[in-house]
């Protein structure tokens, strides 16, 4: 299952709305990316969302 290893963000569901306001199902998928992260002095591969990658980068700098 697609899930962020840091915040737990997953796919959410909603509706597409046409001009006539007809609702059809759709899904909102998180922007997940494989990244190298320093954890306890070691480099590990993690699947993180773009928001978590941004916040980790800001805290490291």
Provide an overview of this structure.
- The protein is α+β, with helices and mostly antiparallel strands.
- It has one domain (12-60).
- 18% of the residues lie in helices and 46% in strands.
- It contains one helix and four strands, in the order E-E-E-E-H.
- A two-stranded antiparallel sheet has the order 1-2.
- Strand 1 (12-17) and strand 2 (23-28) form a beta hairpin.
- It is elongated, with a radius of gyration of 16 Å.
Unreliable stretches, pLDDT < 50, 5 or more residues?
A: none
- Tell me the number of helical segments per DSSP (H or I, 4 or more residues long): 1
The radius of gyration over CA amounts to 16 Å
Largest sheet: 2 strands, antiparallel
Which percent range describes the beta-strand content?
over 45%
How many domains in all? 1
Summary, kept brief:
The chain is 18% helix and 46% strand. The protein has one helix at 50-60; strands at residues 12-17, 23-28, 32-39, 42-49.
């Amino acid at each position: 299952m697609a899930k962020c290893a840091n915040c737990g963000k997953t796919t959410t569901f909603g509706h597409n709305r046409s001009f006539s306001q007809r609702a059809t199902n759709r899904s909102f998928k998180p922007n997940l990316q494989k990244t190298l992260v320093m954890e306890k002095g070691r480099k590990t591969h993690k699947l993180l969302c773009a928001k978590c990658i941004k916040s980790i980068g800001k805290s490291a700098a």
